[in-house]
């Protein structure tokens, strides 16, 4: 690769940044070396086009040392076509060409794994945290994690170190401590830290190659399990047991120190050439560590040395990705492995025109067919990784056998001297580039064995055997099959019922099917009861780590087929405001449903003050109302098939840890076809929440809107709609509402337990108007659920001329019996019962 190519790839544009808190003053340099707390910077194209004094480009903090040709800045960065940006420290020649500066080079970066887009913000917050977000108050991308550490200001130093200073100029955080892929003069790499190369010259993502400082020197690895060592520079002097090792890049050399406390003389120094301060060193995606220097004459960056190659003597062919995966490097050329005495090809080039992208096995190696594994022999080929020695395989055959026995072994390299039976066997779990060697030059022999998957037919002798075997097997198999079929047909007649069970096991798109035993186990024999309804009880259980609610339907009359059909329908409905059906069980007469567990139980607990709980504040109530509305809206309007819930009431609204509300027991009601939406004829639901049209005519999803209106009033008033403990005239909430609405005394309806509610009177009254809209007698005058959502979002207002003469079907029905023990008329589906 020529240096010219390299630079073309790294061209980078510096992007304009506007300091919102400190607008630039015309005629003054507006970017300072330091910034104060509580400052926000936005990356914004529109604002960027404002012509600033120093052109189109601006950094966040910038410093131009007097003593050097180079300046450092921290700001937003991109590579063309500039859709994505990183927050970086970059180095650039402080020429007149700045700020339209194509000569900038990144030496540190905060967010290479997740670049940000337009309108991203960087903020030095009031509590001293440096925070990068997707947009203002958007997703957190990166942070220095320094809040509560008394940070006073941010500064870029003369060396290009981005520092957060605390009290008395103490360094709280610095970019030098978190190097990415480059070092600038004066920067150290401490023991345990690493430089990690990018994935490719055009891809900022972190790549697989890194170098790190360990106690005994500098090591270079390519990531895999375990990591493979491709480079190692061991200290020639004795290692200290106590002091950590570090390497420091000073102009012109890499110095290795065994103490980090005082600079002193390095324990070892790798001199490159004449000292210059206009340099930086970078680990590149091909694993090379290169030294770059600003040349004022050109003017451009030039690569002045390939440090690993020139000073640490790593061979060109010894880099892990020089020929891609499985490629063999022969003095800079790449070829695919092949077996000279065989016509079959086991490897092919990934890209015919680019041999350095490597090779891929024609048949991938599969651990399932371990008997079809063979080793492809490559003579005079070695592998770079020298770390994974198999101790008890000193001769060639043991080495090969060890690899064939272990599925994670993808190749072995066997290195030996004159005596074949005293070698070193190294196993490789992920094969990167191989290299061919000349034994007389390197003074050792080496063979590599690559594991390949053979297709059994490729071997002629085996083929013959297979044919004979195959014919015999086929005959036997046919015979056995005939017998099995005969038995099966007889059984089938006998056990029709049993067959039915099998038949439904594999319906596509179904929730998980559990055995009764499994559910008994996970609910600890149905011991923790969460609640009870007319049609069964709900128990708490645990499947793996997940808490679930298991509903056991009692007195199941429904056929398995109908049950499974309903389960399939419910299982296919997913929305954040609907309780998720996880699984079911249909075994013999047992019918169970497994739902996600909702830790705060049902809404009635919270609005009727059953548990001496504190009143919910207005904000939480609004959130719950919105959640219910969205859940219902989904069922009515967004689902593939229109679904009316038909049993909306607080008992069927469940709350999670954070008071997010979800509807339960939906879909247990009859589905309404989109075309003929008036189909329900049998009365159902729960008294108190029944719409007037239940008494008279055809039922549509508008009955849910009525019930929603009732629930809304309950949430606002903090009481049950039919409450026998109240004085006679106010037993029925809806009757009371009619009276108060007609007399303009709506304020009386607000929950008195909550001061927060009382202080939000205005908003509460608006919510009551929405409730009254939903309670209109004439179902066609009620809003649709999507209109309700719009009103709640403030995008629409409530209909003006409301009819306050709410007719109460529930008073008629409740007159027939005691409302608290009343149970609804026969249900169509056993699944549809209230909790
Ligand atoms: C930071 O604050 C100091 C004093 O409070 C002020 O002198 C300086 O100009 C401020 N720096 C910037 C970049 O606003
Ligand atoms: C960035 O913000 C501006 C103004 O606030 C806005 O007009 C523009 O649409 C936003 N761009 C993106 C991609 O969000
Ligand atoms: C901290 O550093 C700044 C600038 O480098 C300097 O002006 C200030 O005097 C220093 N303060 C202390 C307490 O050393
Ligand atoms: C960048 O590299 C990563 C990791 O190798 C890869 O997942 C991603 O697809 C690459 N992105 C582009 C744009 O090539
Ligand atoms: C290195 O140091 C250890 C103890 O720290 C000592 O035992 C050993 O002899 C030393 N080796 C050399 C080569 O100096
Ligand atoms: C770096 O180079 C400059 C001259 O360019 C020299 O003054 C300085 O002493 C050098 N630093 C080191 C650590 O060699
Ligand atoms: C090819 O040669 C290798 C060793 O040189 C030997 O082990 C293998 O059996 C040979 N394969 C064929 C198909 O002759
Ligand atoms: C298989 O090889 C891997 C990697 O070399 C090694 O970690 C593992 O212990 C080996 N397994 C056995 C059973 O030898
Ligand atoms: C390589 O092996 C051959 C015998 O197979 C032997 O003659 C030769 O000396 C070995 N070469 C080295 C460098 O050990
Ligand atoms: C090779 O080494 C083994 C044991 O280390 C020894 O028995 C054998 O004689 C040696 N062979 C040769 C040719 O040196």
From TrEMBL:
Its main location: membrane. It is found in: Membrane. Residues 524-807 form the Protein kinase domain. Keywords: ATP-binding, Disulfide bond, EGF-like domain, Glycoprotein, Kinase, Lectin, Membrane, Nucleotide-binding, Phosphoprotein, Receptor, Serine/threonine-protein kinase, Signal, Transferase, Transmembrane, Transmembrane helix. It comes from Oryza sativa subsp. japonica. The lineage of its organism: Eukaryota, Viridiplantae, Streptophyta, Embryophyta, Tracheophyta. The chain crosses the membrane at residues 468-489. ATP binds at residue 551. Belongs to the protein kinase superfamily. Ser/Thr protein kinase family. Pfam families: B_lectin, PAN_2, Pkinase, S_locus_glycop. GO terms for molecular function: ATP binding; carbohydrate binding; protein serine/threonine kinase activity. It comes from the Eukaryota. The keyword Transport does not apply. One of its GO terms (cellular component) is membrane. InterPro entries: Bulb-type_lectin_dom (IPR001480), Bulb-type_lectin_dom_sf (IPR036426), G-type_lectin_kinases/EP1-like (IPR051343), Kinase-like_dom_sf (IPR011009), Pan_app (IPR003609), Prot_kinase_dom (IPR000719), Protein_kinase_ATP_BS (IPR017441), S_locus_glycoprot_dom (IPR000858). Residues 367-449 form the Apple domain. Residues 47-177 form the Bulb-type lectin domain. SMART domains: B_lectin, S_TKc. It catalyses: L-seryl-[protein] + ATP = O-phospho-L-seryl-[protein] + ADP + H(+); L-threonyl-[protein] + ATP = O-phospho-L-threonyl-[protein] + ADP + H(+). Residues 1-27 form the signal peptide. This is Receptor-like serine/threonine-protein kinase. GO terms for biological process: recognition of pollen; response to other organism. Its EC number is 2.7.11.1. It is a single-pass type I membrane protein.
């Amino acid at each position: 690769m020529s240096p010219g190519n390299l630079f073309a790839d790294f061209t980078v544009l510096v992007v304009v940044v506007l300091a919102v808190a400190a607008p630039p003053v015309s005629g003054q340099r507006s970017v300072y070396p330091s910034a104060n707390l509580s400052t926000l910077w936005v990356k914004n194209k529109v604002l960027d086009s404002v012509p600033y004094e120093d052109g189109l480009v601006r950094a966040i903090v910038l410093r131009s040392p007097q003593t050097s040709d180079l300046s450092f800045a921290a700001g937003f960065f991109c590579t063309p076509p500039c859709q994505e940006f990183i927050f970086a420290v970059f180095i650039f020649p402080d020429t007149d060409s700045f700020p339209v500066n194509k000569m900038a080079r990144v030496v540190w970066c905060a967010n290479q794994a997740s670049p940000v887009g337009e309108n991203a913000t960087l903020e030095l917050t009031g509590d001293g945290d440096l925070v990068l977000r997707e947009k203002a108050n958007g997703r957190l991308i990166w942070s220095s994690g320094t809040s509560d550490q008394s940070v006073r200001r941010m500064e870029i130093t003369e060396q290009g170190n981005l520092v957060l200073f605390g009290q008395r100029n103490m360094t709280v955080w610095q970019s030098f401590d978190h190097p990415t892929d480059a070092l600038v003069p004066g920067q150290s790499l401490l023991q345990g830290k690493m430089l990690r190369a990018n994935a490719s010259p055009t891809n900022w993502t972190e790549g697989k190659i890194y170098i790190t400082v360990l106690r005994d020197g500098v090591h270079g690895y390519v990531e895999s399990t375990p990591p493979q060592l491709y480079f190692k520079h061991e200290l020639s002097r004795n290692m200290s047991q106590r002091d950590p090792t570090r390497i420091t890049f000073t102009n012109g050399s890499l110095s290795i120190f065994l103490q980090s406390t005082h600079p002193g003389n390095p324990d070892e120094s790798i001199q490159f050439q004449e000292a210059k301060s206009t340099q930086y060193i970078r680990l590149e995606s091909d694993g090379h560590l290169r030294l770059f220097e600003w040349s004022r004459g050109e003017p451009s960056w030039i690569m002045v040395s390939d440090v690993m190659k020139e000073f640490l003597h790593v061979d060109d062919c010894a880099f892990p990705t020089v020929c891609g995966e499985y490629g063999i490097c022969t003095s800079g050329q790449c070829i695919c492995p092949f077996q000279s005495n065989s016509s079959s090809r086991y490897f092919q080039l990934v890209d015919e025109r680019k041999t350095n992208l490597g090779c891929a096995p024609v048949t991938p190696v599969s651990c399932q067919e371990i008997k079809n594994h063979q080793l492809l022999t490559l003579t005079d080929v070695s592998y770079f990784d020298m770390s994974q020695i198999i101790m008890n395989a000193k001769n060639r055959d043991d080495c090969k056998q060890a690899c064939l026995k272990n599925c994670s072994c993808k190749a072995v390299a066997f290195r030996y001297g004159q005596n074949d039976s005293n070698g070193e066997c190294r196993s490789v779990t992920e094969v990167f580039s191989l290299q061919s060697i000349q034994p007389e030059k390197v003074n050792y022999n080496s063979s590599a064995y690559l594991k390949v998957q053979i297709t059994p037919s490729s071997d002629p002798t085996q083929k013959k055997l297979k044919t004979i075997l195959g014919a015999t097997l086929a005959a036997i198999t046919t015979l056995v099959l005939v017998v099995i079929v005969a038995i099966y047909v007889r059984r089938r007649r006998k056990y029709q019922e049993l067959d039915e069970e099998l038949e439904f096991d594999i319906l596509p798109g179904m929730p998980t099917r559990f055995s009764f035993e499994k559910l008994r186990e996970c609910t600890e024999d149905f011991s923790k009861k969460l609640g009870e309804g007319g049609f069964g009880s709900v128990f708490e259980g645990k499947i793996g780590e997940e808490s679930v609610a298991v509903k056991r339907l009692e007195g199941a009359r429904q056929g398995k087929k109908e049950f499974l059909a309903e389960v399939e329908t419910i299982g296919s409905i997913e929305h954040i405001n609907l309780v998720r059906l996880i699984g079911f069980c249909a075994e013999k007469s047992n019918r169970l449903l497994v739902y996600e567990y909702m830790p705060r139980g049902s809404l009635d607990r919270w609005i009727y003050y059953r548990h001496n709980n504190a009143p919910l504040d207005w904000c939480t109530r609004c959130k719950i109302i919105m959640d219910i509305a969205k859940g219902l809206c989904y069922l009515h309007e967004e689902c593939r098939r229109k679904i009316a819930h038909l049993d909306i009431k607080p008992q069927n609204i469940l709350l999670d840890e954070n008071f997010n509300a979800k509807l339960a027991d939906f879909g247990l009601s009859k589905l309404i076809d989109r075309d003929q939406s008036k189909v329900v004829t049998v009365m159902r639901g729960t008294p108190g929440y029944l719409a007037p049209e239940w008494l008279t005519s055809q039922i549509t999803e508008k009955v849910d809107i009525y019930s929603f209106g009732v629930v809304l009033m309950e949430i606002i008033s903090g009481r049950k709609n039919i409450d026998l403990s109240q004085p006679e005239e106010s037993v029925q909430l809806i009757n009371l509402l009619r009276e108060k609405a007609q007399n303009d005394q709506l304020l009386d309806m607000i929950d008195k337990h909550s001061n927060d509610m009382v202080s939000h009177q205005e908003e509460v009254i608006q919510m009551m108007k929405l409730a009254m809209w939903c309670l209109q007698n004439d179902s066609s005058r009620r809003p649709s659920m999507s209109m309700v959502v719009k009103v709640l979002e403030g995008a629409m207002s409530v209909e003006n001329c409301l009819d306050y003469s709410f007719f109460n079907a529930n008073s008629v029905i409740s007159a027939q019996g005691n409302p608290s023990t009343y149970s609804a008329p026969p249900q169509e589906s056993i699944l549809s019962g209230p909790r």
